[in-house]
Amino acid sequence: MPAFERFDLNGRAASPREIARRWHAFHREVRRLSSTPLARVVGPLLGDDTLRRRLVERWRPEGSEAVPVAPASVERFPANYVPTPSSPGTHDVSDHVEIVRLRGDDPGELLEAFRIALASTKEWLLVALDGGDQPALEVAATLLARAADADVVFADEVGDTATIPLLKPRVVGPHTLLSYDVVGRPALLRRETVAREGGLRVEAGRAAEHDLYLRLHEAGAPFRHVPVVLAGRSRAQRHHLDLATDTQRVVAEALLRRNVTAHVSLTDRPSVVRWSPIPDHWPSVDVVIPTRDRVDLLAQCITSVEASTYPKVTITILDNGSVEPATRDYLAATPHHVVDCAGPFNYAAIVNRGVNHCHGDYVVTLNNDTIVRTPDWLEQMVGVAKLDDVAMVGVTLLDRHDVHEHDGIVIAPYPQHLRRGINYLVEDEMVLARRDVAAVTGAVQMIARERYLELAGMDERLAVVMNDVDLCLRSQTGGRHVVMLPDVEVSHFAGSTRGRLDPLSDRNYFVRRWDVFGELVDPYFPEALRLIGDTMQYRSVAD
What we know:
The protein is an alpha/beta fold. The protein is built from 18 helices and 22 strands. Helix 11 links the parallel strand 9 and strand 10. It has helices at 16-34, 37-46, 51-59, 107-118, 133-144, 174-179, 191-196, 208-218, 235-239, 242-257, 295-306, 325-333, 347-356, 377-385, 429-432, 449-454, 467-475, 504-514; strands at 97-102, 124-129, 152-161, 164-166, 187-190, 223-230, 262-266, 273-277, 285-291, 313-319, 337-340, 362-366, 370-372, 390-398, 404-406, 409-411, 415-417, 435-437, 444-448, 481-492, 529-532, 535-538.
């Protein structure tokens, strides 16, 4: 996976006029798809970034927002998805593709049929339930048309219900693949490559295809995703209870092949496992907490960190000019480090100053309006952060009503928080899995201190917003990834300290640097999805 491209360095950055045009188009789309009828009328009158709008936002009291409620059941997701027949490939591919035919979901039958197919002289293999030649060959033609230089070509697939498809990312993240079989079916496999890697293994049981994808990925085989919904695995195959222990075993073996000692445990979903690396030693961790007054929030945040089970943790408080006597008394009496960060509010500068005063191996940025809910949160984060191919680690945030506020940041097309049950309405494998993501929020963000310093920290020109996302994107060089841990939870009372600061200048700087709304894409979020306001929309491959 190549690093994200910096458009402020390649000479192709958008002009201010073009950036304004992109914002206008995006806000118009948000109003059309996600706003109330009143907002659709009033929004254009207020403007997208005007004094009138800022005054209206400032007038609205804190905490006045309606509490989002997830629907009791979901009949359709994404909101506008309509199952449509895929356009089959137009070429006869029977001379190029060997169909591995199955009558049911017996793993023994799959192994035998696959073994026979590997003896074929054809270039490609496709596993398919026995439904006649034409459907399988049509699927093969659709995939083969996009194969190019890939060894594995896979598509989105029909889900448990026709109106909720299984949508997949354009890039197979290595840490996502450890959690569940993100490739699945249908998948076109280059026969020669599969044979070289040993084909399917009987020991893998119902996770035999997952095991093969893990080995192919480790061998550097190119994977290519086709964003078309096609027939894939049956419901019984994806939810079979025996799949859990088989997946647990093949993931444990994959980690051992990578020289990673880890505990692999089952989850409530048979197709998803939780892998937790166990380091040979626990490195030191600095938790840096920016704050200004609101000692009530700061005290409960620190109390929750003190209750952590991690053996080597230091708390550093970054005081941005607190003036209230109660806060000043607390800071004078605390046993923890306090760094004076007086001056105008600049989150990036405050954190940079704090990290420069730290000496730990790893740094966690933690908002003062958070409460840690998972006692071994640092053990879980450190275990993943210590992997050679990990740059940064984030966790799940729940708001004051225990509603999901952050389940990773997706770029679809603007970076926004994925929120399980709020804008992502199904509990599929993706939101339940430890997985690769484009970015995570700086409210809880772990990075090696050495790596942070190599990157020159957060960009202080992004004083208030997008500094955390920018750091995540810049950190993903040299094959490193940002990993989201959905099973580690922190409460976050967003906006309790600084309110709704959201300067357009920060956002425009970020848009220009990364070509947002242009060529910037999220490799780890389904390319068929767009997050418009709070509404997830489907975009067919023909769009």
